[in-house]
Structure formats: structure tokens, C-alpha cells
Design a protein that fits this description.
By secondary structure, the protein is an all-beta fold. It contains 1 helix and 25 strands. Strands 16, 18, 21, 23, 24 and 25 form a 6-stranded mixed sheet that branches. A 5-stranded mixed sheet has the order 6-14-13-9-11, with helices on one face. A 5-stranded antiparallel sheet has the order 15-17-22-19-20, with no helix packed on it. The radius of gyration is 39 Å and the shape is rod-shaped.
Length: 332
């Protein structure tokens, strides 16, 4: 009895089969005659293609809970926000040869976005130094060197240049897919379940509404107005929202009025009060309050120290008062 031992080791990253090996034997009698085997033995030797490299998103190689980013406060200047996606280069089938990606393997990734405001983009953060690229409004990530490079690119993803004044929700999904394509032709796949891997990670980024204190100014240089007896005078207070916001002026509050005097405020005659509110509903970032004062004939009764405060509101709801009022001392 004799053994023939055949050891077969595929070339690195090769799934080329070793063929159908047929063994016949010859026996001989010590006196000379020989005889072949009548039933050969054969073994079909296949090399199984196994996926080496992929990218895992999140804590598991599968669908994870949505990543919630924020909430982040609305800004009065453009801002960048990191998505904080976890991405790791893996060998899903436990292969250890690692990079570079096999020639027979494909690795891809893409990002879909919803609610991206005009002017904003998705991009890789400054810490990423690899070769990957991504369209500004989402799509396929291309140009990466290997799974580790792709993972680093995904982990650095940011929503950049979110416009000043924007509040709302931006959502999206990041997907990765890896496939070993060397499974066809004459090759035989021993296990058809170790050639593919995919993962996805959803995220939501919330920018909460914010409002900045408005400013109030007057047209009276130095803050003092003197009205001649039998004359008239006009004070104009201007309320303006902070630059770079989507805020609007909703009200200007006047205090310090003299109850015994008469004022014409934005065309409305007002008397008998020491305070008065002017409301605005047209949604403008700047509003004027015009006060016309005409002393009674032969009267030098002063019109008081008029103080103006303003309120700004974000279209989504929050409000903020001015922190520094404007005031004008009106003497007759």
C-alpha cells in the first residue's frame, strides 16, 4: 500500500481551481506481471473566493440605530458640523491578508442627503488626508486607496457651510458594499455566502432655531432733541436684527412718554399713556418707528426721555429683546 499526498496552496488572492485530479495505480507481481487499477479515484479541487476587505459603519456590521447629531444651535455665520460617523476597515470573513484590495474585489460607498440647504455641502473634514472625493450634494465616494482610506474618509464627513440663519433638519444615509466578483466561469464556489458584505448608517442633524438680540438706534445725534415753542420735532427709532440671521423685528416698545402730551406714532395719535408698543407683522429685518411731537400753542412742556427697546423673532418661534435701548431726551 502506498500513499500519494498532494498539498495545494493557492497563490495570494487567487481563487483559481486546482482541477479534477484523477488517480490511477499500477500493481505488479514480484515475478513480473503488472495490472492497472480499473476504477480510478478522482477529487475535484476548488479554490473558494472569499471577500477580504469591507468597511463597517457603526458598532456592528449591519444596520445600526440612527446617529443623532446635535441639536446644534442656529448661527449668524456659516458653520460646519461633523457627523461623527463610526467607520472601520474590516475583514468580514476573518481573512488576514488585508490591503491592498484584491483585483477581483470591488468596494463602494455612497451618501444620500435630504434637507440640505442651498449653499451647504457634504465634505471630508480637515483631518482627512487621503485621496477620496465626494460630490458636494452627496453621491458616490470615489478615489479612495483601500478600505482603511475609505473608512477614514467616512469618519471625517461633515456638513459644511450651513448658511447663517438656517434652522431645520438634515438627514441622510451612508452605505458601503463590498463584493468578490471572482465567482463565475469555470470556478466552483464552495461557499456562496462569503463573497459579499454591505452596511448602512442613517443620520439626522438638527439645527435648532435661534435669535440674536436686535439693535435700536435713533436719528437724533447725541440723544437730545429740543423743539422750539410753537414748532414740532420728529424722532425716528430704527430697530434692526443681527446681521447674518433670518430674524425679523416684531415689536418696538416705547417708554418714558409724558401722559399729558400728545404723540403721533407711525401715524397713530397717542396720548394719556407713559408707554406704547408698536407691533410689526410684515416680517422685515428692519423697522422704523416715527414719532412726531407738536407742543401745544405757547407751551414749553417737555416730551420726556423716550426710551425704545425692540424684540426680534426667529421665523420658527424664539424671540429676543434688544440689550441696549436707544433713548432721546425731548425738550420744548
Amino acid at each position: 500500500s502506498e500513499d500519494v499526498t498532494i498539498v495545494m496552496t493557492p497563490a495570494e488572492d487567487s481563487d483559481l481551481d486546482f482541477g479534477t485530479i484523477v488517480a490511477n495505480a499500477t500493481a505488479a507481481d514480484p515475478s513480473g506481471p503488472t495490472a492497472p487499477s480499473t476504477v480510478p479515484a478522482q477529487v475535484i479541487v476548488s479554490t473558494d473566493a472569499i471577500l477580504d476587505d469591507s468597511v463597517q459603519l457603526g458598532a456592528t456590521d449591519g444596520v445600526d440605530a440612527t446617529v443623532v447629531v446635535g441639536p446644534v444651535s442656529e448661527s449668524n455665520s456659516a458653520q460646519d458640523v461633523s457627523l461623527g460617523i463610526s467607520a472601520t476597515a474590516i475583514s468580514p470573513e476573518g481573512q488576514t491578508d488585508g490591503a491592498p484590495i484584491d483585483a477581483s474585489e470591488t468596494l463602494s460607498a455612497s451618501v444620500t442627503l435630504n434637507g440640505l440647504p442651498a449653499g451647504a455641502s457634504i465634505a471630508f473634514g480637515a483631518a482627512y488626508t487621503g485621496s477620496a472625493t465626494i460630490p458636494a450634494t452627496g453621491g458616490a465616494i470615489t478615489g479612495f486607496a483601500d478600505a482603511a482610506d475609505l473608512a477614514a474618509a467616512i469618519a471625517s464627513l461633515e456638513i459644511q457651510n450651513i448658511p447663517a440663519g438656517f434652522d431645520g433638519t438634515i438627514t441622510g444615509t451612508i452605505s458601503t458594499s463590498a463584493t468578490d466578483t471572482a465567482t463565475g466561469g469555470v470556478d466552483v464556489e464552495c461557499d456562496p455566502n462569503n463573497n459579499d458584505d454591505s452596511d448602512s448608517q442613517a443620520f439626522t442633524l438638527t439645527i435648532t432655531p435661534g435669535v440674536e438680540p436686535p439693535t435700536v438706534t435713533s436719528n437724533i445725534v447725541g440723544g437730545e432733541l429740543c423743539i422750539d415753542e410753537d414748532g414740532s420735532g420728529t424722532v425716528i427709532f430704527t430697530a434692526t436684527v443681527a446681521p447674518g440671521t433670518d430674524d425679523v423685528i416684531t415689536q418696538v416698545q416705547l417708554t418714558g412718554l409724558v401722559a399729558s402730551q400728545t404723540y403721533v406714532i407711525n401715524g397713530t395719535t397717542v396720548s394719556g399713556v407713559t408707554s406704547y408698543n408698536v407691533d410689526f407683522t410684515d416680517g422685515d429685518p428692519s423697522e422704523d418707528v416715527t414719532i412726531v411731537m407738536t407742543p401745544a400753542e405757547d407751551s414749553d412742556l417737555d416730551f420726556g426721555t423716550i426710551v425704545a427697546n425692540a424684540t426680534a423673532a426667529d421665523p420658527s418661534g424664539p424671540t429676543a429683546p434688544s440689550t441696549v435701548p436707544a433713548q432721546v431726551i425731548v425738550s420744548t
